[in-house]
Amino acid sequence: MRILLIILFVFLQFHDINSQESLSREFRGVWVATVGNIDWPSAKDLSTQEQQKEIINLLDLFKGMNFNAVVFQIRPSADAFYKSQYEPWSYYLSGTNNKAPSPYYDPLAFIISETHKRGMEFHAWLNPYRALVNISEYRSNPFPLTYEKPEWFINYGKNKYFDPGLPEVRTYTNKVVADIVLNYDIDAIHFDDYFYPYKINGEKFEDERSFKRHGGAFYPDKKDDWRRENVNIIIAELHHTIKSLKPWVQFGISPFGVWRNTKDDQRGSNTEAGQTNYDDLYADIMLWMKNGWLDYVLPQAYWRIGHDKVDYKTIVEWWADNSFGTKLYIGHAMYRLAVKSEDQAWNMAQPTEIESQLIFNKRISQVKGSVFFSAQSFQSNPYKINQTFEKKIYQHPILQPIADKKMKFSPQAVRNLRLTKLKNKQYLLQWDRMPEHIEYQAVKYLVYLFDGNEAPDINQNAKIIALTGEASLLLSKKRIKSGQRLTVVAVSKNNDMSSPVSIQL
To answer: What pairing do the DSSP bridges indicate for beta strands 444-450 and 485-491?
Structure first.
């Protein structure tokens, strides 16, 4: 009986992971954290060349595992990994606040370009309210804005925060986001879970002055509702700002995994989380999804399957039932894998907790993808998880979900598809990009390989051999055979597809 159960488990595991081949699209992302030099740059004193080399190595690593997106932290606090009109260069770039890279380059422009070359999406990750990550780090060289507008800020714990209750702060945040959307070819603006700060026992968030001034009908006894309304307003405003500038740019939120516990609200999840979005961070994610202010939601489901207070399966099922048509991706705690702790689930190698979670996700039709925290976990490769992704989890490239289903921007089909034999036992597949208005431009391409007797079916993910942002593809002689058919499909910024074009070998 024990042997039969093991065989059944292995069969189900293989069947569930490989059911990805029936999916038409999937979001496969990695968070790249810059705060504290967690993922990039690996140190504050790297040269421009070293910084760029690290980025290329990271992107090549993810591309090799058939990931199709990076969620990259470009504003850890009120600083910037790009040429900002409003904020200083990040301390984490050079170890000195407001020091540009030397020799000069714009990290954000460089990373976006390299990401798009690989057919991957770039989601610009920033935080709306965190002004200083650690006040003590900046005492010798603080941000000018904290001196110019001291009334905008509140110290809490080790950090300094923008006061979410001030209309001026919301205006400023919208300007920062608009600056990024207008000047960079990003695919999304992405916020994490930090809205009002996580509560610290015995410490009060001193926003009474702004509450008294701007609380209106909420004052004096409905401060929690007022705080939630402050966050609601900025989310609605940012959605409008982004879409009015570039409708194809997505707006996504990665909230803490629990909206509310059932003990506080029957609509909540059957969990016992110590803090929640609604009650402690004043982030009413459910309202934002109902109102259509988000293109996707990416809850951080950082618990294991079977956790006694917050079970992974319970969390995912709750979000699936309460996403209100918003695209749902799941955030996974890759950083917990193979880290010694009392929770042995994260120390199992066959299968890993991450594999078990992904198997479960495949059974929930509302789940359209996953994102993993963070990049350094793949660099350390615990339990050879990278090889597991390549061979079992993400075996083939795949197209990202449509950015906005209310729009359709199908590009023209490629032209002049041609295959050239090179001297080094390689072939070069090339095609011509078609000029289009920006919404209809082809920004990436899917390449399929079909047997000669097969009709090209672009819904067969197993036939995809590449997702690329370039108008050419190198192929080894071993990979292709006479009589096969190569098919290319152009894809727009909205992830709408053109009609296929094929060439017979």
So the answer is: antiparallel
